[in-house]
Structure formats: C-alpha cells, structure tokens
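Async update (no meeting this week)

Hi team, since we skipped the sync, here's where things stand on the single-chain job. The sequence we agreed to prioritize is pasted below, unchanged from the tracker. I ran it this morning and attached the output directly underneath so nobody has to dig for it. Comments welcome in thread, and please keep replies under the output.
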Amino acid sequence: MELSIFNDASKDKSMSIIEKWKEKLEGSGILVVIGGHDSPSPRGVGYSKNQAIAQSSGSYLCFLDSDDVMMPQRVRLQHAAAVQHPTSIIGCQVRREPPNSTERYTRWINHLAPDQLLTQVFTSNGPTVIMPTWFCSRAWFSHVGPFDEGGRGVPEDLLFFHEHLRKGGGLVRVDQSLLLYRYHPGAATHSVLETTIWTHRVRFLEEWALPHWATFTIWNAGRQGRRLYRSLTAGSRCKVVAFCDVDENKIKKGFYCYEDSQERPKPRVPVLHFRAAQPPFVICVKLVSVRLGHVWLGQPQGQEVVCCVHQEAAG
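Output:
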C-alpha cells in the first residue's frame, strides 16, 4: 500500500505532522510519497488531488480528505468491489462527526437504494456516492479525466461525477460505515455557491435526460418549478407542456406566464392538477415529498420521473 500526500501551500504545522506520520507508516511497510508547494496561496482541491494521483503509482485510488478518518477494513472491502465493478466509482456508508451534523443528508448518503444511486443524481445533494468515500481504478480515473483545476468555488467532484456518468460509469456503495466524515464550517465544499451548482445540474439534466423526451411536465408550479423553467435553454423550454401541482390556488390561476421572455406573445404554460398531468415528469419538490409523488404518479405503470430538486435543508 502507498500513501500519496500533496500539501497545497498550508501555512500551519501540517508538514511536521505529515513527516511524523511518514516515519510511522513506513515503519509499518507503507510507502509514503509527499509533494506540495509553498506558493502564497493554495491552488485548489482539484489541482491537489490531481497532483497526489500523478505522483503515486498504485493501480487503484482510494481518496481520503485530511480531516476524515477511514476504518481499517475500508481499502480491502472497496478494492474487492472495484475488482468486481472496474468501471464504477465505489463508495461506502459514513458516520458523521459531530454525530448530529447534517442528519438528513447523512441519512440520504447511507440509505439510497442501489437504483437510486443513479436516479437521484439530479438532486441538490450532489453526487449520490460522495467524494470523500470514492475508490476506483487508476485506469478508469484516467479514462474519465482529471479533476477540474479551476480552484476555489469550483465543484470539481460534481463535474468529475457528471463526466463519469457521461462515459458510462457505474455507481456502487459498500453498505458498511467505513469513513468518519467530519463536518466543519471551514470545509472547502462551502466555498461553492448554490447558483454554480444549480447551473451545472440544469445543464446536465438537459444533456442527459431531456433529449430523450419530446415533451415533459414540471411537477411544481411554485418558485422552484418556475426557476427550473427559466433556467432551461430555449429548446428545452419549448418541450415543457405544463406545470402540475397540488396547490388549488396555483391550479385555479390556470397558467404561468414567462414574463422575462423576449418572445411575443410571451409563453403561457398551463398549470394542471397533478392527476390531469401527463408524464414524463421532472419533479421539483422536497425529497420527502417525492416519496408521496411516487404514489400519486403510479410508478407501477412505468411513468418516467426525474427527481431534479431537493430544497430541504441539508441539516
């Protein structure tokens, strides 16, 4: 086993800690490779991960953020899964630290069914197999491509995740808690704006799901459904045949007028009761409500659904 560490211009005592651990680990037979730079400012998460991969030599990559702790059996179990699924990203269940931080998000990470790892890739929670748990072959990583090196504010994990799916990659989770996933306000993930993530999600929805549909209905005539409609390209907006909702006040109005449109007359999209709406659907409601939506939509009849938005707070 080899440990590859890249120090992205840290200004604290990180290097002295790394050196102490290098001595301990190499005494146990683990090769430690250390890289880094001492520029005035860091170059970002994507750059650092790419450098750590480039300076390493193993056939498989097991990612670990410096503030997390992995369990002793993690590499063994995820490696076994990666051998069985060579073109997949392998994740695992996690335990949060502090224990009650992001409780709903942690439950979502740990309890998605295998098919939901794919069907819920459009939700605002981001990758269904979260980056701190990733394990994959070096060959597959090289096929998908390096992480985006745009630096602070770039969701490099989401962009890599989308590219992985574009190239036909699979998603597998080892259903054991193999990582202590630490939460703290200074984490790099908090530097990514919600609007940035929203834009990438909508573009991926348009690329990956909407081309297969001649028309579709947006489930939610409220703020989030209208936001999605406005965020679509003109070509995708033309496919929206209706909004649907359960709110009688929205339904009674009868339509949504896209006031910001340059078209004349301005587009007016019907607002229907959900029982009158036609699939396929893009659902723009809280994930807790989507479960009800599965009942309303009659999933056994095979109606197509994309869960696009999860506005429930991550905590």
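Quick observations from my side:
The two ends are 36 Å apart (CA to CA).
Residues 194-208 form the longest helix (15 residues).
Reply here if anything looks off.
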